[in-house]
């Protein structure tokens, strides 16, 4: 069928680090959390052209 979407595979290119061990029950607790995105050295080419954008979406 022409309207079917093809399957998609996602591959992590890094990890997110922060001090959070368990999320508190409040909904807005992330606003004061500082996180670091660590990209695997061999996969940095995946970020080529990123500077042309004002925002990114990070899945974790």
Tag the structure with descriptive keywords.
mainly beta, 2 strands
Structure characterization notes:
Strands 1-2 form a two-stranded antiparallel sheet. The protein is built from no helices and two strands.
What percentage of residues falls in helices of 4 or more residues? under 10%
Helix/strand order, N-terminal first: EE
Oligomer: single chain
Alpha carbon gyration radius: 16 Å
Biggest sheet: strand arrangement: 1-2
Mean pLDDT: 88
Category from helices, strands and their pairing = mainly beta
Uncertain runs are: none
Number of helices: 0
Give the overall silhouette: extended
Give the topology, please.
Blueprint: E1 14-17, E2 36-39
Antiparallel strand pairs: 1-2
Concise description?
The chain is mainly β and 60 residues long.
